[in-house]
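Bug report

Summary: structure tokens for Right handed beta helix domain-containing protein differ between web form and batch submission.
Environment: batch mode, default settings.
Steps: 1) Submit the sequence below via batch. 2) Compare with the web form result.

Sequence submitted:
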Amino acid sequence: MSVRMMIAVVATTALFAGACTGSGSEPEGPSRPERAPAAAAEPPRAHPPIACTHTATDPEQARAQLARAAPGQTLCFAGDGLHGAELEATASGTPRQPIVLVGRDTTVGSVSVDADHVVVDGFTTVDGDGLTLDGTGITVRGNEVLRARDDGIGCLCTDTHIRDNVVREADGTGIRIEGERISVLSNDVSRSVMRESGDADGIRFFGTGHRISANKVHDISDDGYPDPPHTDCFQTYDNSSPPTRDVEISGNTCRNVDHQCLIATAQEAGQAGAVGRSRSLRFVDNTCAVEGSQAVLVRWFPEVAVRDNEISGPDLARGVYLANGSTSAAVVDNRFRGDYPMVEVDESSRPGLRVEGNERF
């Protein structure tokens, strides 16, 4: 190793150690006007200091340290030598001693976790596979995922937290979760595109017990495609996917997206005569400013509560549309901007329906 390279390695290691003190489809609507500019994203939060058990500065070191990782260790990744690297974590921590992966001073292609009780903290991924997660007790925080070749953050997980991440220009969906009890909190998702994928969305969710809160989803367009995607902020469906139950989507902002704020459908269950296999969804206190024919579209999906939301859009033909046996729904205390029906419901979805307290602003 040259003297210059030795100095670079020491400098990047010191950067961590020196500061440490501890360890669907929709009905057609009219043409839309020119798109309004989106609000700027908030600056990233300050990071606490990190105590590194080991620091890797090239792919060979990274592979060796990931292979030897043990519960309670903090593995740091730093420097230009890891540019474009694909990091794969397969060693598990424990609930009290997770393995922590820190990448605050490097840019990699992707981070893949196939293990339990792992923390992924502060990486930037560019032009790779983004963050791919499979396991229990995973935490993904403070990462920036740019131009992923697939979904930006993909999680087949249980008891997992995805928070304070920025995802831009993912090919498909910014964040896709499937499993049980996944928290998606305070992420910024924008400019999803359809290159090799079949659509371009913000957040997709499948499974049970998820909480999706305080996220910003914005600037997802269907312009410029020969066969455009159906761009939505939040989507679930059961075609070749598990049923979705007991999910709460609250306090999110959805702006400048070309179709729905929320689309929840269970067509496969409907065709099988099993409406209710997906059920129980709460959509509460969200701000929706979208370009679709409706802001909320629900089909074959009973027990949906749409409450305390603010809904607007230049092309809205209706605010909330319930159809195909979406019974026992509640549309309560929402605010709608514009002159259109606030709620439309087909006959099959009227049993158990409650609509009250909605107003225009």
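Above is the batch result. After comparison, the two runs are identical; trailing whitespace caused the diff. Residues 1-41 have pLDDT under 50 and may be disordered. The longest helix spans residues 3-17.
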